[in-house]
What does this fold into?
Amino acid sequence: MQKAVFVDKDGTLISDIPYNIDPEKIKFLPYVIKSLKEIQKAGFKIIVITNQSGVARGYFSQDQLESFRVQFSNKLLQNGVSLDGFYYCPHYPKASVKKFESKCVCRKPLPGLIFKAAEKQDINLSESFLIGDILDDIEAGNRAGCKTILLDSGGEKNWNISYLRLPDYLTKNFKDAAEYVLHE
It folds into this structure.
């Protein structure tokens, strides 16, 4: 079995621009590229796990999101990082696109996307990490059995702490998060 680092996209890897699918607006946060290279060199798969309710809300289509995913992956590859997966939840309970109206198991804080990736890619969740910028990310990682890192970059506004929402590690930058992964 393999080990992985599951990462949220917006506010963790790139600047958080709500509902952005414009590849021209992709701006990697400080230390992300160098840190992802080090994580990958240490033998971890890198897998994006992201809620994308913009599909359900009618802001963009799945085809547009897929085009963004390809360009996002290419931008990482151009910087020396090969993405091993990009899993997203298009659902939202109060969707305007009824096809995506759902209380699904893939929308974080539920761990469905992590379980899907782990099954598909033969990942040992107890040796894997999740890095995210909000407590819903942390809860999903904890529910899946991963070690969790909260990147306190200003994304979390609610701070409703509970056992499932308590990260194993808290930091302000991605470089520090990567060092925790590499030395844990």
